[in-house]
Amino acid sequence: MILISTDKISIVKIEKGELISYQKNGEELMHQKGNPGWRNSDTEMFPIIGPTEANNFRVGTPKGNYSQDQHGLLRELEYSATSKTEKSCSFIKKYAAYSAIENSKYPEKSSARLLSWPYSFTFKKSFELTNESLKITFEIIAEKGMPFMLGYHPAFMLNSNLDELVKTEIKEITIPEIMKGGDTAYPVLNTSEISLLKKTGSNISIRTKGFNNFMLWTPVDNMLCIEPITAYPYTGKEMLSKELFTNSNGLDIFEVEIIPS
């Protein structure tokens, strides 16, 4: 699926709900599948963020403990396309409470064969391309009170020189610093906007609504994941504490805007 901006300068490619390409003025901004670092270019983390192996892949809810692997079961479901125009499109995933979902990490990377959650939900992901930016909106329809964590996990292309900077209003972070964070990622908390500054190519600003935190992650010098999150999960405790979860309002909306400059 391809989106083209009104001025024809920006082109976005989406494959089964995954943002696989965002080009502006011919420059590719997204990490490409097959390149070192990560097998995807974007994904979502829901209804949890973070690892669960230390607690035998179990997550506590008001309805009991249920089996979840790292970053939740949403990524095991397939998107269905619901709408398409020249500059926008939408996809949904639906889950029925207590349904057992096969875990793609089993058995090589996980001992949990089946995953489940005691709440039904509909997860909608929408893209809107303008001349200036790409806006990605997430709508979560669920039972009121359902606990959840949400993270968006896009990967951006770097030039492999380790000279890029990630900047907020109060700090600058180098790529080597992020790499030292390892699998627990580098937290950037209590901010809704962050920027990737490059010496060559377009800078990228990311503005969010509803998240207010980021994680930064990369094991390589050619890509960087800049991940808006509702909460940073790597607290050193085996169980994900109740304080990390948001309670559903029935309909919750989150936004991420990617702005090249």
UniProtKB/TrEMBL annotation:
Cofactors named for this entry: Ca(2+)
Quaternary structure (record): Monomer.
Keywords on record: Calcium
A GO MF label: isomerase activity
Pfam families registered for this protein in UniProt: Aldose_epim
Residues spanning the signal sequence: none
Superkingdom as given in the UniProt entry: Bacteria
InterPro entries: Aldose_1/G6P_1-epimerase, Gal_mutarotase_sf_dom, GH-type_carb-bd
Descriptive protein name: Aldose 1-epimerase
GO BP terms, alphabetized: carbohydrate metabolic process
Organism: Lutibacter flavus
